[in-house]
Amino acid sequence: MSSEFETTGRAESDSHAKAEQRVDFARARPPWIRVKAVKGASWRKMMSDLAGLHTVCQEANCPNIGECFGRGIATFMILGDTCTRNCRFCAVKTGISLDVDNSEPARLAESVAKLKLRHVVITSVTRDDLPDGGARAFADCIRAIRDRTPDVTIEVLTPDFQGDTDALKVVMDEKPDVFNHNVETVPRLYKSVRPEARYERSLMVLGKAKEINPAGLTKSGLMVGLGEEKKEVIAVLRDLRKNQVDMVTIGQYLQPTRELLPVARYVTPDEFDEIGESARELGFISVASGPLVRSSYLAESQLPHR
Question: Which of 159, 208, 274, 285 is 20–30 Å from 181 (CA)?
Answer without folding.
Answer: 274
